[in-house]
Structures are given as C-alpha cells and as structure tokens.
Design brief:
alpha/beta; Rossmann fold; six-stranded parallel beta sheet; 13 helices; 12 strands; elongated
Length: about 350
C-alpha cells in the first residue's frame, strides 16, 4: 500500500505537486498529471482518509447506532439489514458510507455514544432503540451533531424522527379481533424501556375502550424481541388463569417462538387462539399462515437517510421536501392465524 510520500519519491517530484495532481488542480500540467495518475494506479496508491477528513472537516461516514446481543437479536436481525440497504443507497449518491455502531446490550448506550462522538467518527448519526426518556437526544443536540431517530421518545429537542405506525397497527388489529367476537385479547411489548412498548400498549387500551372493553394488565406480556421471547410468551399465555382468546405481537421475530410454544402445548394458532403479528422473512413458513403487518423496510431506510441529509448543510439542498417527522405505515396481510371466531 503506497502513500503520497512514496509516490512523490518514486516520481522525484514534490509532495505538493503530487497532491494537486491527484486532486485535479488546474495549476498542474497535463503531462505531470498523467504521470502521477499512472504511477498511483501502478503502485496501488491509497489516500490517507484521516488526513483528508481533517482538512475537509468531515469523515464521509454516517453512523447507525443499534443494540446487539443474543437477548436483542436472537438468531439474527433481518429488520436492520433491509433498512441499512435503503440508507446506503441514498448515501452512495454523495459518496458517503454507512457504518453500523454496535452497542452491546451489556453497555450503557449513553456511554457508548459519548465515546463514538469523542472520536469524531461520523458526520451524522441515526439512532434506533429509542427509549421513553432518551438522554442521547439531548447529548447530540448539545454536541451539534446532525442526527435522526428511528423511533420516538418523550425527550424532544426538535429532532427529526421516523417511527413505525404502532397506533395504526393497534387500531387495525384490535378492531379486527373484536369483530371476530374476541373480548379477552392479550398484547405484547418489549422487555425494556423502549418507547414503542408504551405507544403500542396505550393505543391497544384505547382501541379496546372504544368497544367497551378493557385490557387486563395480566394479559400484557413483556418479552425479548427474539424467538426465545415468543416461546416464553406462549408458556405465559397457557399458564393464565383466564386464558386470552387472541394475542397481538408487536415484534416481528417472536411469532416463530410463540407458534412452537403453543403447538407443544397442543394449542393451535387459528383454531384455539387467534394470533396477529408482524411480517418477517421467516413468518411465511409458519402454519397456519400468519396474519401480519408488513412494511417497506428498504424504502424506510432511504427516507431516513434523505431526512438526515436534509438537516446537514452540505446536502440539504438535495432534499428540500424531506419529511422531518413521519409515521411509517404498516399494512395488514390477512392469513389464517386469526380466523378463529367466537
């Protein structure tokens, strides 16, 4: 790997001339420029990106902070991989790169973010796993670092955010189940302080109230957002003194574990209990076919990236109409898992 000093030594010309030739400056004659470019290709010249970043005052990197660990992702996380694809598609237009900032579930997210910011690692940041009260928003605002959140919070510093339409999901699922005769409906929420859990459960409670029904607190099941979490929910459902006749799953990964746990107990989805969940690459293989909510993940990533760049002076002119805040729609895909009528 050859740097600019080695390239200049090989050509027997100054480092400054080599630098100007590589950067297309007009004060370098064409013959010298040709020699420099040919030698750079032949010798495998690699630019010092750290030096360039210092001179430009930018890194060319957008960081996407997410939490990791078996407790969070289980057997893998296909949700974020699809979102990443959409984000990078937009960043590539501007020769920017996406880097995943992986915060272990065993580490304090605030401490992790402080370390990342102290290193000057990224020009902008996308935050996920937003909490009910999220100190990261205030920290990034104080640090004058452009960011957008994938998720809402009661903490509001005027940040841009996109969030899944959990309210719409709750309304549609509850209305559908009540229309099938269900009166004792269970719901799930994340095991931690994720804001989406509060949003979803509160809206389910309101949707039930419109039908003159209440949500039994014993029928609100917390779980990790993975297959093991779904399996535990199944065990908890079966152990209920008054078993719910339907359940709505807020996370896309837990349906597989739920199905296994129910089937092991001789309780069949769609026959003995109605199930509505969220679509995942694996849910299509469930039997009976899961009634679920789908969303366009790649397009979500693209819109996230455009809205973040709209907050950054160097790119804002390209995205004058980007939404600052938006609820991302989820569409119901009917299956057979909720055809159980009372």
């Amino acid at each position: 790997m050859t740097g600019i000093r080695e390239l200049a030594r090989h050509l027997d010309i100054s480092i400054g001339t080599v630098s100007r030739a590589l950067n297309g400056k007009p004060d370098v004659n064409e013959e010298t420029r040709r020699r420099v470019l040919e030698a750079a290709e032949k010798l495998g010249y690699v630019a010092n990106q750290s030096g360039r970043a210092l001179r430009k005052g930018s890194t060319g990197v957008i960081g996407f902070m997410m939490q990791t660990g078996r407790e969070i992702t289980g057997q893998g996380d296909t949700f974020f991989m699809s979102v990443f694809d959409g984000v990078q598609t937009v960043l590539a237009r501007h020769r920017l790169d996406l880097v995943a900032l992986l915060c272990s579930s065993e580490e304090d997210p605030q401490a992790y973010l402080r370390r990342v910011v102290a290193r000057g690692f990224a020009d902008g940041i996308i935050l996920s796993a937003t909490r009910r009260h999220d100190e990261r928003f205030e920290f990034l605002a104080r640090s004058n670092i452009p960011f957008i959140a994938l998720g809402r919070s009661l903490t509001d510093v005027g940040q841009s955010w996109f969030d899944l339409d959990f309210e719409g999901m709750a309304d549609t699922a509850i209305d559908r189940l009540v229309s099938h005769g269900h009166r004792h409906i269970a719901v799930t929420r994340p095991h931690d302080d994720m804001n989406l859990g509060y949003v979803f459960v509160d809206r389910c409670r309101q949707a039930l109230a419109r039908h003159g029904l209440t949500l039994d607190e014993a029928h609100v099941f917390r779980s990790t957002p993975n297959e093991a979490g779904g399996y535990q929910i199944a065990r908890d459902l079966i152990a209920c003194k008054k078993r719910p006749t339907a359940v709505v799953l807020v996370n896309e990964a837990i349906a597989i574990g739920l199905y296994r746990g129910l089937n092991e107990a001789g309780v069949k989805p769609g026959r003995d209990i109605a199930v509505i969940g969220r679509q995942s690459p694996h849910s299509q293989f469930l039997s009976p076919r899961l009634t679920c909510f789908s969303l366009a993940l790649r397009e979500l990533g693209s819109s996230l990236a455009e809205s973040l760049l709209a907050t950054m002076p160097a790119y804002s002119k390209h995205y004058p109409d980007a939404a600052a805040r938006r609820l991302w729609p989820m569409d119901l895909v009917p299956g057979e898992s909720d055809i159980f009528n009372l």
